[in-house]
Design brief:
The complex is a heterodimer of chains A (293) and B (327).
Chain A lengths: L1 H47 L2 H6 L12 H7 L7 H32 L5 H10 L5 H14 L7 H4 L7 H12 L3 H9 L4 H12 L1 H17 L2 H6 L8 H10 L6 H33 L4
Helix pairs in contact in A: 1-14, 3-14, 4-8, 4-11, 9-10, 11-14, 13-14
Chain B lengths: L2 H7 L10 H44 L16 H9 L1 H32 L6 H14 L3 H10 L10 H8 L11 H14 L2 H12 L3 H9 L4 H30 L2 H7 L10 H10 L4 H29 L8
Helix pairs in contact in B: 2-14, 4-8, 4-9, 4-11, 5-9, 6-12, 8-12, 9-11, 11-14, 13-14
The chains are: A mainly alpha (293), B mainly alpha (327).
Amino acid sequence: MEQTLDFSAYKRHQRRAALSRSIFYYVGVIILAIVMLYPVAWLVASSLKPAEEIWGNVTSLIPGALHFENYAEGWQGFGGITFQIFFGNSFLHAGVGTLFTVVSSAIVAYGFGRVKFRGSKIWFSIMLMTLMLPAQILMIPQYIIFNELGWVNTFLPLLIPRLGGDVFFIFMIVQFIRGIPIELDEAAMIDGCSKTGIFHRIILPQIVPALVTAAIFSFYWTWEDFLGPLVYLQNPEMYTVALALRAYTDVGSINNWGAVFAMLTLSLVPVILIFVFFQRYLVEGIATTGLKG
Amino acid sequence: MSEPSAVLTGLNPPQETLTPEIRAKRKSKDFKRNNLVGYLFVSPWLIGFFLFAFIPIAISLYLAFTNYHLLRGGEWVGLANFERMFTSDIRYGRSILATFKYVILAVPLRLVFALAVALLLNTKRRGVYWFRAAYYIPSVIGGSVAVAVMWRQLFGGDGRVSEGVINTFIGVLGFERINWFGNPDTAIWTLILLAIWQFGSPMLIFLAGLRQIPSELYEAASIDGAHGWQKFWGVTLPLLTPIIFFNFIMQMIAGFRVFTQAFVITGGNPLDSTLFYALYLYRRAFNDFQMGYASAMAWVLLLIIGFFTAISFRLSKYWVFYETKEG
């Protein structure tokens, strides 16, 4: 009798200890979340503050009045070029670039993953070795070549090389293809399917998740790419959003920081939207392949 | 390969009906067809590799030994570029110093944070999913110019020393406000703090690794009387060393190449204290058009990264614990 009483008291004590540990845990992770997200919240809040409040009441996250005019003003851009042009350029760069990258990567990955051909192993290891090359080595000769071709100040140097696919994505898709049972290919072969037929009838539908992951990463890396556009796009009308933001904040005399913060916020919207809708793909892409984020 | 399909596709025809010659012929014909198909499929990459990697690598290697200038051209100068780098270019020395300081401080700090937070999130508690997402957001947007410009303002860039957010908090806490961008010792910390803030990707990789540690090991450790910290040192950490090593290599390589943040936030200032390697190389190539010299710098960067990667692999056998895989 006494023993059972003791036991329930012990259990109650245990539960109380677990509860306090839980509270401790959640207070900790919530504080960390606040620290992590504060800068982003501050940016969004500042984009809505009236000009005098941005630096006057700098740490507050709640604007005294919602000053949406900042967005209209920022959208006007600079030098007579509106952000409509810059966003259009960025969508062209990231959209077409991603399309090229993903389509080519899928085709090449099938070649390496499922077709046995002489030299495939050597080429595959050469391909992986190119991952080690710093962009700085290729950047200068590529610039000289594209300059000779008259491609500087066009999107061609940023888009055409992507027709070769991206090594990281090719590798990822190859790994994915190797996980698909070979029996599916064989069954299709018996039914008279060619290698090409197997690719688009059997493999392509199976690798959609890998392609989505590749597309997400490709899009947001391209959207945030700065060095490429910086080197090749010199005419302000060709600027991507990243370049435009740099130029916009570099002029020195900014009258309304609210307008600047509004455009900074707007430039993050596509990336945040992708994150919200495709979080699972992003997280799994990083966790399983070590893709850098 | 299963029997019926092998017969039907003619890859392995029944041996008794065929002479070796026919077999060899069939095999080579089949091989040829696959060769053609294989090369057709990988041709986008292969063509891209030759045009945009192989030829540029060859050109770059040649340029490294010339004084090529984008507008004036150039000629063969032998090892003069390398000599200049290591003997007379003071700014080059400063950029090496700044880069090493950044890598040595930012990479371990980022990994420690990533691991600590991954351990924190490696639980079945409710809502962990949302915290993981919240901690990852800075890394998603982190590479962008927008975040770099924001960061500069947070630390009171553009002469707003007393108005920046960080300094306002520092002031509230009763400390002296810091002129972050005016002092060589503090400017680099704005970039290191930015790197720490973006611990999301290594965190996710650590989390994936933690989930793969078999729970039996923890149970066995418990039976042996191990407590929380003992389990961490005895089970978690050793089993995680391959992932720590992977993250370390990836982050180190990324650290040596960092560009955008330094370009936008500090511009290499003050006194070249944040003039990172990639930034200085870019300036030499695209502001001064000294493309021969910049190419030589790029090859030295490759050697530096290769050297430290090789050293890391060498040292890894002393601390990275690999489970022996049985079939």
